[in-house]
Amino acid sequence: MPTDSTTSSATFDTDVLIVGAGPTGLTLGAALAQRGVRARMIDRQSAGDNTSRAAVVHARTLEVLEPLGVTPALVARGLQARRFTIRDRDRVLVPIGFGQLPTRYPYTLMVSQAVTEQVLLERFMQLGGQVQRPCTLVGLAQDDAGAVATLDDGSRLRARYVVGCDGMHSAVRELTGIRFEGGSYGESFVLADVHLSGSVPADEVRLYFSPGGMMVVAPLPDGVHRIVAPVDDAPEQPSAAYLQRLLDARGPQAERALVGDVLWGSRFRVHHRVADTYRAGRVLLAGDAAHVHSPAGGQGMNAGILDAVVLAEALRRALAGDPAALDGYGAQRRPVAQQVVAFADTLTRMATVRPALRALRNAVLGTLASLPPFRKRLAWRLSGLVYR
Length: 388
Ligand SMILES: Cc1cc2nc3c(=O)[nH]c(=O)nc-3n(C[C@H](O)[C@H](O)[C@H](O)COP(=O)(O)OP(=O)(O)OC[C@H]3O[C@@H](n4cnc5c(N)ncnc54)[C@H](O)[C@@H]3O)c2cc1C
Fold this sequence. Notes:
The structure is a single chain. This protein has 388 residues and is of the alpha+beta class. 34% of the residues lie in helices and 30% in strands. It has helices at residues 23-34, 59-65, 71-77, 113-126, 171-176, 240-250, 300-319, 324-351, 355-369, 372-383; strands at residues 14-19, 39-42, 56-57, 79-81, 83-88, 91-97, 108-110, 131-132, 137-142, 147-151, 156-164, 180-198, 204-209, 215-220, 224-231, 257-275, 279-280, 283-285, 291-292. Strands 1, 2, 8, 9, 10, 11, 17 and 18 form an 8-stranded mixed sheet that branches. β9 (137-142) and β10 (147-151) form a beta hairpin. The two termini are 37 Å apart. Residues 19-25, 42-45, 53-56, 113, 136-137, 165-167, 171, 191, 268, 287-288, 295, 298-302, 304 line the site of flavin-adenine dinucleotide.
């Protein structure tokens, strides 16, 4: 059988078909283009998503995006949060400073996902890429040499490799029969971008633990704050009054934070799942198609971007005649997804302990937080530097 490097290029429409132009697909597209790999990208939406969703870009992500040339543009459009605290109402349980981290980016960059996607798309296009949209993958078959994707207009596209960057409900994953084991949290999450006044710093991400559940209050550029909280039954469109009640119940007490206007709000359900494998023959998975988890710790999009950078290099090597590089991709990235799911799960469970255990949790966390190695480990994990 001919190897990838000897099979005629004319047999294929492209070397790599990327399904999905979210942050994972766009990063993969740009990283492949930079390596001179032929790739096509499709997305079922007629325009990029403009919802806020992920608001956090970690230090490690900024580091791996550096060679792609997008980090300065992202940093210029984001806000630098140098502190992360876990609190029980007004009491600081765990203070984490990113300032001492050995990186050029000793902070969490707060920037909306829409901006991150725009910056990645611009770079992808500068490198000669384009996204074919709206265009939905509806069928997928593969043999030893490549894969054939069927699109919703009935046309077919033949590629040496197909990568599913098509999110949690990945058609690529389902059509390939890769299982997505895990479960869902019972609660729904409310998410809103608001104007706040009162006790709300513009350079610190706060994770509040409270008997009613956790709540994240994080600064975004332009004087906006992001509120995320698990609740039993989140409203479809959270109002200012609803968010004020949430802040009063879970947030600071001594000095209230006051909700002004609500710029954007939504609700969502959270799953914790990891794909059984990241590769089935000529088909690969990356990003939310391969792993989803609680937003606690803000790791989802970051993990997807890191997947994409590692996968781009593995695909380049595979196309140059070293297909084993693709198994290395899964071997490297799947355990990371399992760690991220476990970390987000620990934070979520700690935040929602029964009231009877709350004092014990606070005491244990308070003791651990007084130990510099514990704070350092948490800073390394949150910033993603632990995955270097
Ligand atoms: C409310 C919320 C808050 C979040 N907060 C954070 C956070 O603070 N930090 C963080 O890191 N992460 C966060 N996340 C997670 C983050 O948004 C995701 O991890 C990230 O969007 C995953 O990127 P992706 O490119 O893998 O998938 P997606 O962003 O889901 O993109 C998938 C793309 O594939 C396309 N597509 C789907 N099916 C097909 C098909 N059959 N054919 C063609 N195209 C298709 C879709 O149109 C879409 O554009 C949050 C998520 C939610 C919902």
